[in-house]
């Protein structure tokens, strides 16, 4: 399933790209289709940070993203990396005390906050918020000259950065520079450009199982059960790994198992993540090709896990499972393997195996592929190295198929 995000550069006085604003789009047609603001923002967050990735979308420069009041009060911005996200507050929020507390917390945690479409700043509640705002985005096409002068004055008094938006001519650009604006955005520099990616739909059934597990009290949440659910859904696992790379929980410790990823994110992180997904949407996997790829991934994962036991590497069985599970991620995302794998916080040996480099993880994965292809020549040349017989491997392969068939029946039969 293709997803789309529009990006528009925000430039400095020297015409260098300072950041990008990311905008909701639902097709390659470059226009906004009216929809619920929270849903639009949630889709932009997931499509940008998880599906497409900021390395492709913005060359890892900061991204301005509009947040509705509901998403701010749910503290959704806190999950994403403060060095990558600029929190843009829409002009029609209530500026309540609760919202001001959220902004104070965001500021303390290192986030930049921008106030969007400023044309009239003389509202009492705005002044308290200005203590926590970093950037004023001034709509130069709508603001009156009187309000414009007042906003520029307040920017100087509060030490705020002024961003001129909707700049369309050279003359407007020059005037803004003379008035003290230091950031600029508009058609004069660039129209929004559409960037697209390939999303992996997750299973509604596993999603709702996760919701059920995580609605228990913290001391009743079963991490093993949560991990088991994640192990059934390639999309949730992939998005979990991508999200870790884009979040405040970004790790220097390489991920060796799905359980480790779940533990790293924590129950509160998982709840926030699932909240964003729930606002975005739940989409069933209906493509026959997607179902086949996911089913094959499950078989490979279980086979690799059980082969780890047979070759006396049971302590790393979770890593072998993860290797098999992620081995077709390039197929389902329709992106080069090195690009996809490079964006995940995986253990280096698992990464090498997924990129086709030889190590023990790769050898076991190759065994799984050989079983799929009935490549008996490969099997004959390698099984002796591990002192394994054909009967052992066929038994494990049969068990892996049975396990995946059961999951397939549980999750897909209601959809076809």
Automatic annotation (TrEMBL):
<dbReference type="InterPro" id="IPR014408">
    <property type="entry name" value="dGMP_Pdiesterase_EAL/HD-GYP"/>
</dbReference>
<dbReference type="Pfam" id="PF00563">
    <property type="entry name" value="EAL"/>
</dbReference>
<dbReference type="Pfam" id="PF08668">
    <property type="entry name" value="HDOD"/>
</dbReference>
<dbReference type="InterPro" id="IPR052340">
    <property type="entry name" value="RNase_Y/CdgJ"/>
</dbReference>
<feature type="domain" description="HDOD">
    <location>
        <begin position="200"/>
        <end position="402"/>
    </location>
</feature>
<dbReference type="InterPro" id="IPR001633">
    <property type="entry name" value="EAL_dom"/>
</dbReference>
<dbReference type="InterPro" id="IPR035919">
    <property type="entry name" value="EAL_sf"/>
</dbReference>
<feature type="domain" description="EAL">
    <location>
        <begin position="1"/>
        <end position="206"/>
    </location>
</feature>
<dbReference type="InterPro" id="IPR013976">
    <property type="entry name" value="HDOD"/>
</dbReference>
<protein>
    <submittedName>
        <fullName>HDOD domain-containing protein</fullName>
    </submittedName>
</protein>
